[in-house]
Design brief:
Structural class: alpha/beta
Strand content: 5-15%
Strand order of the largest sheet: 3-2-1-4-5-6-7-8
CATH topology of the largest domain: Rossmann fold
Helix content: 40-55%
Shape: elongated
CATH class of the largest domain: Alpha Beta
Amino acid sequence: MNLAGIGPVVLVGAGKMGLALAQGWLKAGLKPDNLVLVDPKPGDVTTGFAAQHGVVLAASVADVAPQVLVLAVKPQIMVGVLAEVKPVVGPGTLAVSIAAGISLATLTQGLGTERVVRAMPNTPAQIGKGISGAVPADRVDAGDKGVAEALLGAAGPVVWFDREAQLDAVTAVSGSGPAYVFHLVEALAEAGRRQGLPDDVAGQLARQTVIGAAALLEADPAPAAKLRENVTSPNGTTAAALAVLMGEDGLTRLMGRAVEAARVRSEELGRG
């Protein structure tokens, strides 16, 4: 779907994720005069973004009649935001929420409409390399899904789910997942330092190794397991390291615990 025909789009919450999505929309053809950023206390980044791209920056949603209302605020303040924006939600409004843990039931009740999509993108959306999971409320039709997919898809692939509970797992895997990778870089660099490498060199090696491995994953359609095997010579150095990482108490079990903790927290946020 061409974003040029969509609007007005009202983005409530112009933080890093919100602006990452907005950047993608504009690149994908959304007209600047069809985008309104709502932030009662915008920082320099938000103000600069609005000025650079010629989009409206507003302190509230008053007097706006959005075709699409995108909610990109922290889950802890969502209830208050829903009460504030409800008056501008009409029968022609599609609402898309990217707040972790906030259920469709809470969104539909708070907005007074069942034309709601709950989604979870991730921060690589800032460079068009993100991925989003999404689940529609019962009254969302094919046209609404097309609009939501066009907006979310400007930041990367969109995966649709039938069961809302699966979105908590999406949040735990891909929504929070970039932080796990960044921490892997930190841990790998620290391991290098402990082996005697200078701080800056250890950081450079760890960072570029992850960047290169990710680029290879993108370029080569082979499963990750196959790419791992390609690097691993029998009885070599990589095999010795993988014996630790793939051991009984290794990375698989640790990652499972981490993802479980994130999923549980996402559920807790939904319950308030």
